[in-house]
Specification:
The structure holds two protein chains of two kinds. Chain A is of the alpha/beta class. Chain A contains 14 helices and 15 strands. Classes of the chains: A alpha/beta, B mainly alpha. At the A-B interface, α9, α10 and α11 of A face α1, α2 and α3 of B.
Chain lengths: 462, 58
């Protein structure tokens, strides 16, 4: 059952919110020993909230589109009275006294929060092999990484312990786990979803977004959380939504660019074949699919890495005196940031402006881009190097190199599964101009309706 | 090329020597990519201070 099917069943009184929450808790209890996707479960509070949701439904006053739906949060969204760790020792005992904007909006829409999800420490990495709370495991193959940093979000949604989850994406941290776990995730435009109350990694690169099993489920979550928030000084005042694609939405005539440089240059042949098949499907559905040359992504990635290193180390500064609190990989990144010059950071932000202006020109020729989300399927837990096209690459840099640039540019990007190869899902991303979330979601839904779906992950069927 | 080990020592950062070797090597690669991009920026090019839509920027 999808999120929208569950919402429909709730409104028709074929199922109750308590039944959905109870089922979610049972599945979590059964699968958590194999997944380790949660840091904190809020089962009792969820059941109480579900009972309240049922009373509200009985009185004919549902709160919104997510009324009674079990959802979980990456553990960097502040939750009043519930500890928020960011997957770190630094915040191991941190119990906030207010909710993040996203949490407020999900609850206003009626969501039932089941708990806080495991993640890469401080959201600063892509494996979710957390040294403090244990590694998150991929439900498609528990010896493999779910990606990250929103790894718990990806694993929980793929294993169907919750209908949707919140993630954050600073250099691919929604789209990478979506790709590795075979689910949908959207990184909205910078400024579209409030960052208020989300523990920051990089102020100008952090994006908050939903992850779910279908494009329409993802859209309905985005609709609930998007919009202006005066408490986030980068929040856009543009009206948000509607985002839920119509039944029978079409991509006929949509101009889809497939990058002829960079994105397909060094990827697993199995990933290439799955993404190319998706582009062919888009063409058969009436889209005008054409090759397009994109600006120098390596250069954008370099700028993005400098901005990230500097901003992350600046915000973590007070904690870095206690080196024993951090895992080795995260500490190395914080140390790198401390060695950069202020002029490098400022110049990176200047180059970033120029890169954005250059990339904007693409939207004069195509409506969106279709590209692989990750160059490989999920790596094994503990794997640090991979071979691609005869080149040995660091897993973190390889997994982020197709997604990181879009954070620097601020564009929305929708990751959707497009195949299964060797028993593991493959993901693509649709990238659009700023604030074109509705277009991306419509295109994604049309592809799903046209057959771009993958089987449920085997663990979800148990 | 920046001597990142010297920078660490000059700033009194408590980074162990073995870690510093790896960190410096990574930063040197990044600097090699970034240096040419920042070498010739026009004076009037200002930094991004928060990306927003073109309409909101105007």
């Amino acid at each position: 059952m999808t999120l929208l099917e569950a919402a429909s069943a709730l409104r028709a009184r074929r199922v109750s919110a308590v039944e959905l929450a109870t089922d979610s808790l049972c599945r979590i209890q059964a699968l958590e020993p194999r997944l380790n996707s949660f840091i904190t479960l809020t089962g009792e509070a969820a059941l109480e909230r579900a009972r309240q949701a049922d009373r509200e439904l009985a009185s004919g006053a549902p709160r919104g589109t997510l009324h009674g739906i079990p959802i979980a949060l990456k553990d960097l969204f502040l939750t009043r009275g519930v500890r928020t760790t960011a997957g770190s020792k630094v915040y191991a005992d941190f119990v906030p006294d207010y909710d993040a904007a996203v949490v407020e909006r999900l609850e206003a829409a009626g969501a039932v929060i089941m708990g806080k999800l495991n993640m890469h420490e401080m959201a600063y990495g892509i494996t979710s092999a957390n040294p403090h709370y244990g590694p998150v495991r991929n439900p498609w193959d528990t010896e493999r990484s779910p990606g990250g940093s929103s790894g718990g979000s990806g694993a929980a949604v793929a294993a169907e312990t919750v209908f949707g989850a919140m993630g954050s994406d600073t250099g691919g941290s929604i789209r990478i786990p979506a790709s590795f776990c075979g689910i949908v995730g959207i990184k909205p435009t910078y400024g579209r979803v409030s960052r208020y109350g989300a523990l920051p990694l990089s102020y100008s690169l952090d994006h908050m977004g939903p992850m779910a099993r279908t494009v329409r489920d993802t859209a309905v979550m985005l609709e609930a959380i998007a919009g202006h928030d005066r408490r986030d000084n980068t929040s856009s005042v543009r009206p948000a939504g509607p985002y839920l694609p119509d039944e029978g939405c079409s991509i006929r005539g949509l101009k889809i660019g497939v990058p002829e440089n960079y994105f397909f240059d060094r990827i697993d042949p199995e990933v290439r074949s799955a993404v190319e098949a998706a582009a062919q499907l888009a063409s058969r559905l009436g889209a005008e699919v054409r090759p397009v040359r994109v600006p120098d992504i390596n250069a954008i990635n370099a700028v993005s890495r400098i901005v990230l290193l500097a901003e992350a180390s600046a915000q973590a500064g007070p904690h870095l005196a206690k080196r024993e609190l951090f895992g080795a990989d995260v500490l190395a990144l914080f140390d790198q940031g401390r060695l950069l010059a202020a002029t490098d950071y400022i110049n990176a932000q200047r180059v970033r402006r120029r890169q954005r202006e250059e990339f904007d020109r693409i939207w004069q020729t195509v409506d969106c881009l279709l590209a692989p989300a990750t160059p490989t399927t999920a790596p094994r837990i503990g794997e640090t190097l991979i071979q691609l096209g005869g080149v040995e690459e660091d897993v973190r840099l390889a997994s982020t190199r197709l997604v990181r640039s879009i954070n620097s540019l601020g564009y929305p990007a929708l990751a959707i599964p497009c195949g299964v190869r060797g028993g593991l899902p493959v993901g693509l991303q649709l990238i659009g101009a700023s604030f074109q979330e509705a277009l991306l979601l419509c295109a994604g839904a049309a592809l799903e309706d046209g057959g771009l779906r993958i089987p449920r992950c085997p663990l979800a069927s148990t | 090329m920046t001597d990142f080990k010297a920078v660490a020592r000059a700033r009194g950062l408590d980074i162990p020597e073995a870690d510093l070797d790896r960190i410096a090597a990574t930063l040197e690669k990044l600097e090699a990519l970034f240096g040419p991009l920042a070498a010739d920026l026009p004076s009037l090019l200002e930094p991004v201070t928060g990306i927003c839509s073109r309409e909101e920027a105007e």
